[in-house]
Design brief:
The protein is of the alpha/beta class. The chain has a single domain, classed as P-loop containing nucleotide triphosphate hydrolases (Rossmann fold), CATH 3.40.50.300. Helices cover 57% and strands 12% of the residues. The chain is built from eight helices and five strands. Strands 2-3-1-4-5 form a five-stranded parallel beta sheet, sandwiched between helices. The longest helix is centred in the first third of the chain and has 25 residues. The chain is globular. The protein starts with a strand and ends with a helix. 36% of the residues are buried.
Length: 228
């Protein structure tokens, strides 16, 4: 049974960790699962990610930023997402098209209707079946990011993709930017409650894991019943 699940939310909300937990939990139940991320997920996308998140690239304009994210997304859709969904895999993506509306729209103030139009071009209209918004105060999320990176550095490691820890160009934005992003996510979720589920990212990690897992399992069961 194929289903497309995305995880969204402010920085430090634990999306990458919960995405890995969800993959592991579904695989343990016999599901074929693809886990990917944005920006990235393909060779081309990872190169774009390096440009976007490099803290030294502060001169990137909001429009350039949006177009780079869309280029990475378009490649991910064609190379990974559509083939996986056609193969009836469960697809889990750490961020997707809604992040453009939240960050470049609500955060930077770009026109939301224009962003929706170019998002449609990049994705060919492919939308998630289920989107989690892992919500928490932005100050708490940024503190989590700093502490996690400091812990890695103390152990002689840099932030790695599997750690979900990279202090990047967007992390370094002013707190008000991150507050606008958070409010944007909550507004998007309120507009489409059938697809979105807002969960409390302040919950203990394992409690949040169980909550997300059970919601996904219920959705899989519902989809299976509807299609049988």
């Amino acid at each position: 049974m194929s289903i497309f699940v995305t995880l969204e939310g402010p920085e430090g909300s634990g999306k990458s960790t919960q995405a890995r937990y969800l993959r592991n939990d579904l695989q343990a139940r016999g599901c074929s699962v693809i886990l990917t991320r944005e920006p990235g997920g393909t060779s081309i996308g990872e190169k774009i990610r390096g440009v976007l998140l490099d803290i030294g690239n502060s001169e990137i304009s909001p429009v350039t930023e949006a177009l780079l994210y869309l280029a990475s997304r378009s490649q991910l859709v064609e190379e990974v997402l559509r083939p996986a969904l056609s193969s009836k895999d469960v697809v889990i993506c750490d961020r997707y098209a809604d992040s453009t509306l939240a960050y470049q729209g609500f955060g930077h103030g770009l026109n939301l209707d224009e962003l929706r139009a170019v998002n449609f071009l990049a994705t060919g209209g492919l939308e998630p079946d289920l989107t989690f918004c892992l919500d928490l105060p932005v100050e708490t999320g940024l503190q989590r990011r700093r502490r996690a990176l400091e812990s890695l550095l103390q152990n002689g490691r840099q932030g790695e993709p599997e750690d979900g820890v990279e202090w990047n160009r967007l992390d370094a934005k002013e707190v008000e930017f991150h507050r606008r992003v958070r409010m944007g996510y909550l507004e998007l979720a309120a507009l489409n409650p059938e697809r979105w589920v807002v969960v409390d990212a302040l919950l203990p990690e394992q409690d949040l894991r169980g909550q997300i897992r059970e919601i996904v399992l219920r959705r899989l069961k519902r989809e299976s019943t509807m299609r049988s």
